[in-house]
């Protein structure tokens, strides 16, 4: 192979001495790579490693893929978070189905037991308590002496009044004799008519004085009889507020008289019950009522409605009803707190919902009804209020879905997630 090199200058006879060391190295390398017999013009250049995808390009592609996947994953997470946030923003509510009202209902109302006859016992005369004979819980009969009051002033006044009566009777006898004598003399014309009339007038005045004195004696005798305090009827002593030696003031003569005893007849009892106006038409005289009390919850006592006030109290909007109970066995005590169970028959076709479903709005009573996961505030009309539940006369059907414990912010058109619970509003 012939190498065509540029001619050297005349001054550089030795190429190795005049050539740059780097150039010399390249020539040596090229000489080692290219064989001497190969024509350089016909030799194909070797493949360049940098002409295909380089490591830098591959790394850049991987980096772009990672960034793209990260952006996609972030977008997917944001979309999922937005969906979950929107789902969480939808109010979850508990709902119930209205139930059909029962044909027969039991109305339970509180009542206070009172004795059929009950009275406080006061003294009718002033004095000191000398002795008492019965204490609380004692059964007494009508006319029995409960206590004795010592009233010496009344005794002395009675003696004085009796003596005065005797004097008046003596004057009346003298006036009567004188009048009779003057009437005899008048017949003989021995005295004038005026003198006879005067004698008769004196007799009549003396008789009137005797009658007045006799009435005063009877009054004092009656006061003296009040020294013995008697039971006015058969009953039980429920209170004793006095003891021996106490100063007793007459009940009618003191602004704050002391009640000596309290007597109650417990053989028959009365129970007064305030029935709400809405149930007043269902209460009838002669109907039977069952009574229960907390002390004996398993014992039911039968009573009878004997009368009612036949008027609604303006303050409480209730009907006052009296129930009489035969208490010969002594099961009930006066003053006891009892529960009256009234059996009400009704033909109502309304539905019943829990009371905690009601919404009190300015436009009227409403309940939240869920239709297609949307809220509708339905106007309703209450028929009866049972306390924990209410009967709806109009506005709902048994197929409606009613929200329990609705929030104040509930409005028509609001989207909700309903969760069905029992008819009492509990899961």
What does this structure look like?
There is one protein chain. 28% of the residues lie in helices and 35% in strands. The chain starts with 14 loop residues before the first helix and ends in a 7-residue tail after the last strand. A hairpin with a 5-residue loop joins strand 12 and strand 13 (318-326). The chain has a six-stranded antiparallel barrel with strand order 3-10-13-12-11-14. A four-stranded antiparallel beta sheet has the order 2-15-20-19, with no helix packed on it. A four-stranded antiparallel beta sheet has the order 7-6-4-9, with no helix packed on it. Helix 4 (152-187) runs antiparallel to helix 5 (193-225). It contains five helices and 22 strands. It is α+β, with helices and mostly antiparallel strands.
Architecture of the largest domain, CATH level 2? Answer: Beta Barrel
Q: What form results from the Cα inertia axes?
A: rod-shaped
Low-confidence stretches: 1-47
Chain-averaged pLDDT: 80
- In the sheet with the most strands, the strands line up as 3-10-13-12-11-14
Q: Which class of secondary structure composition applies to the elements?
A: alpha+beta
Portion of residues in beta strands equals: 25-35%
CATH topological fold name of the largest domain:
conserved putative lor/sdh protein from methanococcus maripaludis s2 fold
The proportion of residues forming helix, as a percent range, comes to: 25-40%
Number of helices: 5
């Amino acid at each position: 192979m012939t190498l065509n090199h540029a001619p050297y200058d005349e001054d550089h006879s030795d190429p190795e001495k005049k050539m740059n060391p780097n150039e010399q190295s390249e020539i040596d390398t090229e000489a080692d790579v290219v064989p001497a017999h190969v024509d350089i013009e016909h030799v194909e250049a070797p493949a360049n490693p940098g002409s295909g995808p380089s490591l830098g390009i591959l790394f850049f592609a991987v980096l772009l893929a990672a960034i793209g996947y990260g952006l996609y994953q972030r977008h997917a997470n944001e979309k999922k978070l937005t969906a979950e946030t929107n789902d969480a923003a939808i109010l979850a509510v508990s709902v119930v189905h209205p139930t059909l009202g029962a044909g027969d209902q039991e109305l339970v109302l509180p009542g206070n037991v009172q004795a059929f006859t009950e009275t406080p016992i006061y003294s009718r005369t002033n004095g000191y308590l000398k002795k008492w004979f019965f204490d609380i819980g004692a059964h007494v009969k009508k006319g029995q002496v409960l206590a004795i009051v010592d009233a010496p002033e009344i005794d002395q006044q009675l003696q004085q009044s009796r003596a005065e009566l005797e004097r008046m009777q003596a004057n009346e006898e003298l006036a009567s004799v004188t009048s009779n004598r003057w009437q005899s003399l008048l017949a003989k014309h021995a005295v004038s008519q005026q003198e006879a009339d005067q004698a008769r007038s004196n007799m009549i005045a003396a008789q009137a004085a005797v009658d007045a004195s006799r009435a005063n004696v009877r009054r004092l005798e009656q006061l003296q009889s009040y020294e013995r305090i008697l039971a006015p009827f058969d009953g039980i002593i429920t209170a004793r507020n006095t003891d021996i030696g106490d100063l007793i003031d007459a009940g009618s003569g003191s602004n704050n008289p002391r009640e000596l005893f309290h007597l109650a007849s417990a053989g028959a009892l009365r129970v007064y019950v305030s029935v709400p106006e809405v149930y007043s038409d269902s209460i009838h005289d002669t109907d039977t009522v069952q009574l229960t009390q907390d002390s004996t919850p398993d014992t039911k006592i039968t009573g009878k409605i004997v009368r009612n006030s036949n008027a609604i109290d303006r303050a409480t909007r209730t009907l006052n009803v009296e129930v009489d109970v035969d208490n010969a066995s002594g099961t009930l005590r006066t003053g006891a707190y009892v529960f009256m169970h009234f059996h009400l028959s009704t033909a109502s076709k309304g539905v019943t919902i829990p009371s905690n479903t009601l919404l009190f709005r300015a436009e009227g009573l409403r309940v939240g009804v869920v239709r297609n996961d949307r809220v509708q505030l339905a106007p309703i009309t209450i028929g009866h209020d049972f306390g924990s539940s209410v009967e709806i006369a109009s506005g709902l059907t048994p197929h409606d879905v009613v929200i329990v414990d609705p929030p104040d912010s509930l409005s028509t058109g609001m989207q909700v997630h309903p969760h069905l619970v029992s008819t009492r509003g509990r899961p």
